[in-house]
Design goal:
By secondary structure, this protein is an alpha/beta fold. The protein folds into three domains: 78 residues, Winged helix-like DNA-binding domain superfamily/Winged helix DNA-binding domain (Arc Repressor Mutant, subunit A), CATH 1.10.10; 241 residues, Type I PLP-dependent aspartate aminotransferase-like (Major domain) (Aspartate Aminotransferase, domain 2); 100 residues, Aspartate Aminotransferase, domain 1, CATH 3.90.1150.10. The protein has 14 helices and 15 strands. The strands form three sheets. Strands 4-11-10-9-8-5-6-7 form an eight-stranded mixed sheet, sandwiched between helices. Strands 12-13-15-14 form a four-stranded antiparallel sheet, with helices on one face. The chain is globular, with a radius of gyration of 24 Å. The two termini are 40 Å apart.
Length: 475
Protein backbone atom coordinates (compact mmCIF):
# COMPACT_ATOMS: atom_id res chain seq x y z
CA UNK A 1 0.00 0.00 0.00
CA UNK A 2 1.53 3.30 -1.11
CA UNK A 3 1.30 6.45 0.98
CA UNK A 4 0.86 9.67 -0.97
CA UNK A 5 2.38 12.91 0.31
CA UNK A 6 0.49 16.25 0.37
CA UNK A 7 2.81 17.57 -2.36
CA UNK A 8 1.49 14.89 -4.73
CA UNK A 9 -1.67 16.96 -5.22
CA UNK A 10 0.34 19.70 -6.96
CA UNK A 11 -0.31 23.44 -6.99
CA UNK A 12 -3.77 24.85 -7.43
CA UNK A 13 -4.80 27.30 -10.17
CA UNK A 14 -5.46 30.70 -8.59
CA UNK A 15 -6.90 31.98 -11.91
CA UNK A 16 -9.48 29.21 -12.24
CA UNK A 17 -13.17 29.91 -11.67
CA UNK A 18 -13.60 26.58 -9.87
CA UNK A 19 -13.27 26.90 -6.07
CA UNK A 20 -10.27 25.27 -4.38
CA UNK A 21 -12.26 22.39 -2.90
CA UNK A 22 -13.47 21.51 -6.40
CA UNK A 23 -9.95 21.66 -7.84
CA UNK A 24 -8.71 19.33 -5.08
CA UNK A 25 -11.62 16.99 -5.75
CA UNK A 26 -10.80 16.99 -9.49
CA UNK A 27 -7.10 16.26 -8.86
CA UNK A 28 -7.88 13.25 -6.69
CA UNK A 29 -10.49 11.95 -9.15
CA UNK A 30 -8.05 12.20 -12.04
CA UNK A 31 -5.34 10.44 -10.05
CA UNK A 32 -7.65 7.63 -8.93
CA UNK A 33 -9.41 7.10 -12.26
CA UNK A 34 -6.10 7.28 -14.13
CA UNK A 35 -4.54 4.67 -11.84
CA UNK A 36 -1.92 7.00 -10.31
CA UNK A 37 -3.50 6.44 -6.90
CA UNK A 38 -4.43 2.79 -6.53
CA UNK A 39 -7.10 1.08 -4.41
CA UNK A 40 -5.85 0.83 -0.84
CA UNK A 41 -3.31 3.68 -1.17
CA UNK A 42 -3.23 6.03 1.80
CA UNK A 43 -4.52 9.57 1.19
CA UNK A 44 -2.85 12.58 2.87
CA UNK A 45 -4.59 13.68 6.05
CA UNK A 46 -6.81 16.74 5.78
CA UNK A 47 -4.64 18.60 8.30
CA UNK A 48 -1.40 17.85 6.44
CA UNK A 49 -2.87 18.80 3.05
CA UNK A 50 -4.32 22.04 4.47
CA UNK A 51 -0.90 23.02 5.83
CA UNK A 52 0.86 22.09 2.58
CA UNK A 53 -1.53 24.12 0.40
CA UNK A 54 -2.01 26.98 2.87
CA UNK A 55 -5.78 26.50 2.89
CA UNK A 56 -8.41 26.33 5.60
CA UNK A 57 -9.09 22.87 6.97
CA UNK A 58 -12.76 23.26 5.97
CA UNK A 59 -11.79 23.52 2.29
CA UNK A 60 -10.00 20.17 2.42
CA UNK A 61 -12.84 18.59 4.41
CA UNK A 62 -15.34 19.73 1.74
CA UNK A 63 -13.29 18.06 -1.01
CA UNK A 64 -12.80 14.87 0.99
CA UNK A 65 -16.50 14.71 1.90
CA UNK A 66 -17.38 14.81 -1.80
CA UNK A 67 -14.84 12.08 -2.57
CA UNK A 68 -16.22 9.90 0.23
CA UNK A 69 -19.82 10.48 -0.87
CA UNK A 70 -18.99 9.39 -4.42
CA UNK A 71 -17.07 6.32 -3.26
CA UNK A 72 -13.56 7.32 -4.30
CA UNK A 73 -12.05 7.22 -0.82
CA UNK A 74 -12.86 5.67 2.57
CA UNK A 75 -12.13 6.96 6.06
CA UNK A 76 -10.68 4.39 8.46
CA UNK A 77 -10.80 6.62 11.54
CA UNK A 78 -7.45 6.76 13.33
CA UNK A 79 -6.01 4.41 10.69
CA UNK A 80 -6.31 7.23 8.14
CA UNK A 81 -8.05 7.60 4.79
CA UNK A 82 -7.44 5.34 1.79
CA UNK A 83 -8.51 4.97 -1.83
CA UNK A 84 -11.53 2.67 -1.83
CA UNK A 85 -10.44 -0.96 -2.24
CA UNK A 86 -11.79 -2.66 -5.35
CA UNK A 87 -11.99 0.48 -7.50
CA UNK A 88 -11.09 -0.34 -11.09
CA UNK A 89 -8.66 2.22 -12.64
CA UNK A 90 -9.23 3.51 -16.15
CA UNK A 91 -7.93 1.19 -18.85
CA UNK A 92 -4.81 2.29 -20.78
CA UNK A 93 -5.30 4.31 -23.97
CA UNK A 94 -6.37 2.05 -26.82
CA UNK A 95 -7.81 -0.65 -24.53
CA UNK A 96 -11.56 -1.15 -25.00
CA UNK A 97 -13.63 -0.55 -21.89
CA UNK A 98 -16.84 -2.31 -21.03
CA UNK A 99 -18.32 0.99 -19.88
CA UNK A 100 -17.07 4.58 -20.13
CA UNK A 101 -15.13 6.02 -17.23
CA UNK A 102 -17.14 8.32 -14.96
CA UNK A 103 -17.38 11.82 -16.38
CA UNK A 104 -17.74 14.85 -14.17
CA UNK A 105 -18.18 17.22 -17.09
CA UNK A 106 -20.78 16.34 -19.72
CA UNK A 107 -22.43 13.17 -18.35
CA UNK A 108 -26.12 12.68 -19.20
CA UNK A 109 -27.19 16.16 -18.17
CA UNK A 110 -25.46 17.78 -21.19
CA UNK A 111 -24.22 20.61 -19.00
CA UNK A 112 -21.87 20.14 -15.98
CA UNK A 113 -22.67 21.11 -12.41
CA UNK A 114 -19.36 22.93 -11.99
CA UNK A 115 -18.25 26.48 -12.82
CA UNK A 116 -15.58 26.51 -15.51
CA UNK A 117 -14.28 29.37 -17.63
CA UNK A 118 -16.50 29.79 -20.74
CA UNK A 119 -19.11 27.36 -19.34
CA UNK A 120 -22.27 27.46 -21.44
CA UNK A 121 -25.71 27.96 -19.92
CA UNK A 122 -24.60 30.09 -16.96
CA UNK A 123 -25.62 33.71 -16.33
CA UNK A 124 -23.24 36.13 -14.57
CA UNK A 125 -23.28 34.52 -11.14
CA UNK A 126 -21.26 37.37 -9.62
CA UNK A 127 -23.92 39.88 -10.68
CA UNK A 128 -26.89 38.14 -9.06
CA UNK A 129 -28.41 40.17 -6.18
CA UNK A 130 -27.99 37.49 -3.54
CA UNK A 131 -28.68 39.83 -0.60
CA UNK A 132 -32.04 40.81 -2.05
CA UNK A 133 -32.81 37.17 -2.77
CA UNK A 134 -31.86 36.14 0.78
CA UNK A 135 -34.06 38.87 2.27
CA UNK A 136 -37.06 37.83 0.17
CA UNK A 137 -36.44 34.18 0.96
CA UNK A 138 -36.33 34.83 4.70
CA UNK A 139 -39.52 36.88 4.53
CA UNK A 140 -41.40 34.25 2.52
CA UNK A 141 -40.29 31.55 4.96
CA UNK A 142 -41.44 33.61 7.95
CA UNK A 143 -44.83 34.27 6.37
CA UNK A 144 -45.40 30.66 5.31
CA UNK A 145 -48.77 29.31 6.44
CA UNK A 146 -49.93 25.69 6.90
CA UNK A 147 -51.81 26.01 3.59
CA UNK A 148 -48.47 26.69 1.90
CA UNK A 149 -46.99 23.45 3.28
CA UNK A 150 -49.27 21.01 1.49
CA UNK A 151 -48.55 19.60 -1.98
CA UNK A 152 -47.80 22.45 -4.40
CA UNK A 153 -50.25 23.32 -7.17
CA UNK A 154 -49.29 21.24 -10.21
CA UNK A 155 -49.98 24.15 -12.58
CA UNK A 156 -47.86 26.59 -10.57
CA UNK A 157 -48.35 29.06 -7.74
CA UNK A 158 -51.27 31.35 -8.76
CA UNK A 159 -49.38 34.49 -7.77
CA UNK A 160 -46.36 33.49 -9.85
CA UNK A 161 -48.53 32.65 -12.86
CA UNK A 162 -50.06 36.12 -12.60
CA UNK A 163 -46.66 37.81 -12.35
CA UNK A 164 -45.33 35.88 -15.37
CA UNK A 165 -48.39 36.82 -17.45
CA UNK A 166 -47.98 40.50 -16.56
CA UNK A 167 -44.24 40.43 -17.33
CA UNK A 168 -44.76 38.79 -20.74
CA UNK A 169 -47.40 41.34 -21.68
CA UNK A 170 -44.99 44.23 -21.11
CA UNK A 171 -41.64 42.74 -22.14
CA UNK A 172 -42.46 40.23 -24.87
CA UNK A 173 -45.75 41.53 -26.28
CA UNK A 174 -47.64 38.36 -25.31
CA UNK A 175 -51.26 38.81 -24.24
CA UNK A 176 -52.18 35.87 -22.03
CA UNK A 177 -54.13 35.14 -18.87
CA UNK A 178 -52.56 33.51 -15.78
CA UNK A 179 -54.51 30.32 -16.50
CA UNK A 180 -52.55 29.93 -19.76
CA UNK A 181 -49.25 29.91 -17.84
CA UNK A 182 -47.93 26.58 -16.57
CA UNK A 183 -44.91 26.57 -14.28
CA UNK A 184 -42.43 23.74 -15.01
CA UNK A 185 -39.07 22.58 -13.67
CA UNK A 186 -37.12 23.41 -16.84
CA UNK A 187 -37.04 23.14 -20.63
CA UNK A 188 -37.02 19.35 -20.64
CA UNK A 189 -40.09 19.26 -18.41
CA UNK A 190 -41.76 21.85 -20.64
CA UNK A 191 -41.09 19.87 -23.81
CA UNK A 192 -42.18 16.62 -22.14
CA UNK A 193 -45.44 18.26 -21.11
CA UNK A 194 -46.08 19.44 -24.68
CA UNK A 195 -45.22 16.03 -26.14
CA UNK A 196 -47.55 14.30 -23.69
CA UNK A 197 -50.41 16.69 -24.43
CA UNK A 198 -50.15 17.24 -28.19
CA UNK A 199 -47.88 14.66 -29.83
CA UNK A 200 -48.08 10.91 -30.35
CA UNK A 201 -45.69 8.15 -31.33
CA UNK A 202 -44.76 8.38 -35.01
CA UNK A 203 -45.33 12.13 -35.34
CA UNK A 204 -42.71 14.24 -37.09
CA UNK A 205 -41.41 17.52 -35.64
CA UNK A 206 -39.19 20.11 -37.31
CA UNK A 207 -36.07 20.96 -35.30
CA UNK A 208 -33.40 23.48 -36.20
CA UNK A 209 -30.10 22.28 -37.68
CA UNK A 210 -27.84 23.17 -35.97
CA UNK A 211 -29.95 23.13 -32.85
CA UNK A 212 -30.04 22.40 -29.12
CA UNK A 213 -29.11 18.67 -28.83
CA UNK A 214 -31.44 17.69 -25.94
CA UNK A 215 -34.50 18.61 -28.04
CA UNK A 216 -33.99 15.77 -30.53
CA UNK A 217 -32.95 13.40 -27.76
CA UNK A 218 -36.11 14.03 -25.77
CA UNK A 219 -38.38 13.73 -28.80
CA UNK A 220 -36.68 10.46 -29.70
CA UNK A 221 -37.44 9.03 -26.26
CA UNK A 222 -41.08 9.91 -26.90
CA UNK A 223 -40.90 8.00 -30.21
CA UNK A 224 -41.40 11.25 -32.10
CA UNK A 225 -39.22 11.75 -35.18
CA UNK A 226 -37.12 14.92 -35.17
CA UNK A 227 -36.67 16.27 -38.70
CA UNK A 228 -33.54 18.50 -38.92
CA UNK A 229 -34.31 21.65 -40.93
CA UNK A 230 -31.36 23.84 -42.03
CA UNK A 231 -30.81 27.32 -40.63
CA UNK A 232 -29.26 30.29 -42.45
CA UNK A 233 -28.78 33.99 -41.63
CA UNK A 234 -32.58 34.47 -41.44
CA UNK A 235 -33.19 31.52 -39.14
CA UNK A 236 -35.10 28.33 -39.90
CA UNK A 237 -35.54 27.82 -43.66
CA UNK A 238 -39.30 27.17 -43.73
CA UNK A 239 -39.25 26.11 -47.40
CA UNK A 240 -36.82 23.31 -46.49
CA UNK A 241 -39.13 22.17 -43.72
CA UNK A 242 -41.98 22.02 -46.23
CA UNK A 243 -39.83 19.95 -48.55
CA UNK A 244 -38.59 17.55 -45.88
CA UNK A 245 -41.78 17.02 -43.86
CA UNK A 246 -44.75 19.13 -45.04
CA UNK A 247 -47.19 17.30 -42.72
CA UNK A 248 -45.06 17.55 -39.59
CA UNK A 249 -47.07 17.86 -36.40
CA UNK A 250 -44.96 20.62 -34.85
CA UNK A 251 -41.84 22.78 -35.14
CA UNK A 252 -39.45 23.68 -32.33
CA UNK A 253 -37.80 27.04 -32.99
CA UNK A 254 -35.70 29.67 -31.23
CA UNK A 255 -36.78 32.86 -33.07
CA UNK A 256 -35.16 35.56 -30.91
CA UNK A 257 -31.63 34.13 -30.92
CA UNK A 258 -31.35 30.89 -32.82
CA UNK A 259 -29.64 28.29 -30.68
CA UNK A 260 -26.70 28.18 -31.25
CA UNK A 261 -26.08 30.57 -34.19
CA UNK A 262 -27.83 33.55 -32.50
CA UNK A 263 -29.45 34.79 -35.74
CA UNK A 264 -33.03 36.06 -35.50
CA UNK A 265 -35.92 34.54 -37.43
CA UNK A 266 -36.86 37.10 -40.08
CA UNK A 267 -40.37 38.55 -40.19
CA UNK A 268 -41.08 36.93 -43.56
CA UNK A 269 -40.21 33.51 -42.19
CA UNK A 270 -42.19 34.12 -39.01
CA UNK A 271 -45.28 34.71 -41.15
CA UNK A 272 -44.47 31.70 -43.32
CA UNK A 273 -44.11 29.49 -40.25
CA UNK A 274 -47.41 30.72 -38.79
CA UNK A 275 -49.14 30.19 -42.14
CA UNK A 276 -47.84 26.61 -42.32
CA UNK A 277 -48.98 25.86 -38.77
CA UNK A 278 -52.45 27.31 -39.37
CA UNK A 279 -52.94 25.52 -42.68
CA UNK A 280 -51.81 22.14 -41.32
CA UNK A 281 -53.18 22.54 -37.78
CA UNK A 282 -49.63 22.07 -36.56
CA UNK A 283 -47.97 23.51 -33.46
CA UNK A 284 -45.06 25.93 -33.11
CA UNK A 285 -43.03 25.56 -29.94
CA UNK A 286 -41.19 28.85 -29.36
CA UNK A 287 -38.18 28.37 -27.08
CA UNK A 288 -37.35 31.91 -25.90
CA UNK A 289 -34.44 30.90 -23.69
CA UNK A 290 -32.57 34.27 -23.64
CA UNK A 291 -34.66 36.69 -25.68
CA UNK A 292 -34.07 39.45 -23.10
CA UNK A 293 -30.41 39.73 -24.09
CA UNK A 294 -30.14 41.67 -27.33
CA UNK A 295 -27.43 44.33 -27.63
CA UNK A 296 -27.92 46.08 -30.98
CA UNK A 297 -31.52 47.18 -30.35
CA UNK A 298 -34.42 46.53 -28.03
CA UNK A 299 -35.38 42.85 -27.55
CA UNK A 300 -37.53 41.59 -30.43
CA UNK A 301 -41.21 40.80 -29.79
CA UNK A 302 -41.90 37.12 -29.34
CA UNK A 303 -43.22 35.06 -32.25
CA UNK A 304 -46.16 34.30 -29.95
CA UNK A 305 -47.14 37.99 -30.14
CA UNK A 306 -47.98 37.48 -33.85
CA UNK A 307 -50.09 34.37 -33.25
CA UNK A 308 -53.77 35.01 -34.00
CA UNK A 309 -54.86 31.40 -34.52
CA UNK A 310 -53.65 29.83 -31.30
CA UNK A 311 -50.89 27.70 -32.84
CA UNK A 312 -47.85 28.87 -30.80
CA UNK A 313 -46.77 27.51 -27.43
CA UNK A 314 -44.30 29.85 -25.75
CA UNK A 315 -41.56 28.38 -23.50
CA UNK A 316 -39.55 30.63 -21.19
CA UNK A 317 -37.10 29.97 -18.39
CA UNK A 318 -35.64 31.56 -15.26
CA UNK A 319 -32.40 29.59 -15.61
CA UNK A 320 -30.68 32.09 -17.90
CA UNK A 321 -31.97 35.26 -16.22
CA UNK A 322 -31.62 34.15 -12.57
CA UNK A 323 -29.61 30.92 -12.12
CA UNK A 324 -29.90 27.31 -13.36
CA UNK A 325 -30.27 25.58 -9.97
CA UNK A 326 -33.56 27.36 -9.40
CA UNK A 327 -35.15 24.76 -11.74
CA UNK A 328 -38.07 26.96 -12.77
CA UNK A 329 -39.43 27.59 -16.25
CA UNK A 330 -42.84 28.30 -17.73
CA UNK A 331 -45.05 27.51 -20.68
CA UNK A 332 -47.80 29.65 -22.21
CA UNK A 333 -50.37 27.57 -24.07
CA UNK A 334 -53.16 28.70 -26.43
CA UNK A 335 -56.40 29.39 -24.56
CA UNK A 336 -58.18 26.53 -26.32
CA UNK A 337 -55.57 24.09 -24.94
CA UNK A 338 -55.70 25.13 -21.27
CA UNK A 339 -58.05 22.34 -20.24
CA UNK A 340 -55.95 19.71 -22.01
CA UNK A 341 -52.75 20.89 -20.32
CA UNK A 342 -54.45 21.04 -16.93
CA UNK A 343 -55.49 17.43 -17.39
CA UNK A 344 -51.99 16.31 -18.42
CA UNK A 345 -50.36 18.31 -15.61
CA UNK A 346 -52.53 16.63 -13.01
CA UNK A 347 -51.26 13.25 -14.19
CA UNK A 348 -47.59 13.91 -15.02
CA UNK A 349 -46.48 17.05 -13.11
CA UNK A 350 -45.42 17.01 -9.48
CA UNK A 351 -45.35 20.76 -8.91
CA UNK A 352 -42.34 22.95 -8.07
CA UNK A 353 -41.52 23.86 -4.43
CA UNK A 354 -43.83 26.53 -3.01
CA UNK A 355 -41.03 28.51 -1.36
CA UNK A 356 -39.01 28.86 -4.57
CA UNK A 357 -42.06 30.02 -6.50
CA UNK A 358 -43.00 32.46 -3.74
CA UNK A 359 -39.54 34.05 -3.75
CA UNK A 360 -39.53 34.40 -7.55
CA UNK A 361 -43.03 35.89 -7.44
CA UNK A 362 -41.93 38.52 -4.88
CA UNK A 363 -38.73 39.16 -6.86
CA UNK A 364 -40.81 40.02 -9.94
CA UNK A 365 -43.57 41.89 -8.12
CA UNK A 366 -41.20 44.25 -6.29
CA UNK A 367 -39.34 45.20 -9.48
CA UNK A 368 -36.08 43.37 -8.77
CA UNK A 369 -36.52 41.11 -11.79
CA UNK A 370 -36.83 43.96 -14.30
CA UNK A 371 -33.92 45.84 -12.74
CA UNK A 372 -31.76 42.72 -12.79
CA UNK A 373 -32.45 42.19 -16.50
CA UNK A 374 -31.61 45.82 -17.27
CA UNK A 375 -28.33 45.63 -15.34
CA UNK A 376 -27.25 42.32 -16.83
CA UNK A 377 -28.17 43.36 -20.38
CA UNK A 378 -25.73 46.27 -20.08
CA UNK A 379 -23.15 44.10 -18.32
CA UNK A 380 -23.37 41.33 -20.92
CA UNK A 381 -22.92 43.79 -23.76
CA UNK A 382 -19.70 44.98 -22.13
CA UNK A 383 -18.45 41.47 -21.33
CA UNK A 384 -19.27 40.22 -24.80
CA UNK A 385 -17.16 42.94 -26.41
CA UNK A 386 -14.34 42.48 -23.88
CA UNK A 387 -14.26 38.70 -24.31
CA UNK A 388 -14.28 38.90 -28.10
CA UNK A 389 -11.50 41.51 -28.11
CA UNK A 390 -9.39 39.58 -25.61
CA UNK A 391 -9.65 36.27 -27.44
CA UNK A 392 -9.03 37.80 -30.86
CA UNK A 393 -5.92 39.62 -29.61
CA UNK A 394 -4.38 36.32 -28.49
CA UNK A 395 -5.91 33.78 -30.87
CA UNK A 396 -6.54 35.80 -34.03
CA UNK A 397 -4.18 33.52 -35.93
CA UNK A 398 -6.31 30.48 -35.12
CA UNK A 399 -9.93 31.67 -35.07
CA UNK A 400 -12.44 34.41 -35.84
CA UNK A 401 -15.35 35.56 -33.71
CA UNK A 402 -18.84 35.77 -35.25
CA UNK A 403 -20.64 39.09 -34.96
CA UNK A 404 -23.96 38.44 -33.20
CA UNK A 405 -26.83 40.75 -32.19
CA UNK A 406 -27.53 39.02 -28.88
CA UNK A 407 -27.30 35.93 -26.74
CA UNK A 408 -24.99 34.76 -23.97
CA UNK A 409 -22.23 32.99 -25.89
CA UNK A 410 -19.71 33.59 -28.65
CA UNK A 411 -19.08 31.46 -31.73
CA UNK A 412 -15.37 31.01 -32.39
CA UNK A 413 -14.84 29.86 -35.99
CA UNK A 414 -11.70 27.73 -36.22
CA UNK A 415 -9.35 28.51 -39.08
CA UNK A 416 -7.68 25.70 -40.98
CA UNK A 417 -8.60 22.06 -40.53
CA UNK A 418 -8.86 21.85 -36.74
CA UNK A 419 -11.43 19.54 -35.14
CA UNK A 420 -13.72 21.40 -32.75
CA UNK A 421 -14.55 18.17 -30.89
CA UNK A 422 -10.92 17.29 -30.29
CA UNK A 423 -10.21 20.84 -29.13
CA UNK A 424 -13.17 20.74 -26.75
CA UNK A 425 -11.82 17.56 -25.18
CA UNK A 426 -8.42 19.15 -24.65
CA UNK A 427 -9.99 22.29 -23.16
CA UNK A 428 -12.00 20.21 -20.72
CA UNK A 429 -8.85 18.34 -19.68
CA UNK A 430 -7.19 21.71 -19.06
CA UNK A 431 -10.02 22.96 -16.83
CA UNK A 432 -11.69 25.15 -19.49
CA UNK A 433 -15.07 24.68 -21.15
CA UNK A 434 -16.45 24.83 -24.67
CA UNK A 435 -18.95 23.01 -26.82
CA UNK A 436 -18.34 21.87 -30.40
CA UNK A 437 -20.66 23.30 -33.02
CA UNK A 438 -20.48 20.01 -34.94
CA UNK A 439 -22.07 18.29 -31.91
CA UNK A 440 -25.09 20.54 -32.45
CA UNK A 441 -25.55 19.57 -36.11
CA UNK A 442 -27.50 16.57 -37.39
CA UNK A 443 -24.81 15.66 -39.93
CA UNK A 444 -22.00 16.27 -37.41
CA UNK A 445 -19.70 17.21 -40.29
CA UNK A 446 -20.21 20.96 -40.63
CA UNK A 447 -17.74 23.79 -40.11
CA UNK A 448 -15.67 23.53 -36.93
CA UNK A 449 -16.42 26.16 -34.29
CA UNK A 450 -16.38 26.52 -30.52
CA UNK A 451 -19.30 27.77 -28.45
CA UNK A 452 -18.07 29.66 -25.37
CA UNK A 453 -20.02 31.64 -22.79
CA UNK A 454 -18.84 35.17 -21.99
CA UNK A 455 -21.15 36.13 -19.11
CA UNK A 456 -18.67 35.16 -16.38
CA UNK A 457 -15.59 36.67 -18.04
CA UNK A 458 -15.14 39.89 -16.08
CA UNK A 459 -12.73 41.83 -18.31
CA UNK A 460 -10.65 41.87 -21.47
CA UNK A 461 -7.57 41.10 -19.36
CA UNK A 462 -9.29 37.98 -18.03
CA UNK A 463 -10.24 36.98 -21.59
CA UNK A 464 -6.62 37.40 -22.68
CA UNK A 465 -5.45 35.22 -19.79
CA UNK A 466 -7.92 32.52 -20.77
CA UNK A 467 -6.92 32.96 -24.41
CA UNK A 468 -3.31 32.22 -23.50
CA UNK A 469 -4.40 28.99 -21.82
CA UNK A 470 -6.25 28.09 -25.04
CA UNK A 471 -3.17 29.03 -27.06
CA UNK A 472 -1.11 26.45 -25.17
CA UNK A 473 -3.68 23.86 -26.21
CA UNK A 474 -3.94 24.94 -29.84
CA UNK A 475 -0.29 25.66 -30.61
Amino acid sequence: MATHKPSDIGTLDTEASAPYYRQIYDRFCDAIIGGVMKPGDRVPSARALAEELGLARGTIDAAYSLLVAEGYIQSRGQAGTIVTPGLKPRAPVGTPEKSPAPSRVLANTFRPDSIRPFQMGLPALDAFPRKVWARLGARCAREMQPSDMVHPAVHGLPELRSQIAAYLQVSRGIACSPTQVFVTSGYRHTLSLIAQALLKSGDKVWVEDPGYPPTSDLLGHRRVTAVPVPVDHEGLIVSEGLRLAPRARAAVVTPAHQSPLCVSLSLARRWALLEWATRNEAWIIEDDYDGEYRYVSRPLPALKSLDREGRVLYAGTFSKVLFPSIRLAYLVVPEAQVERFEEVSRVFAGGSPWLTQAVVSAFIKEGHFARHIQRTRKLYGERRDATAAGLESVLGKYLSVDSQPGGMHLILRLLGRRSDRRLVERMLDAGLYAEALTDWTARRDGASALLVNFTNVESQAKAETLGKRMLNIMA
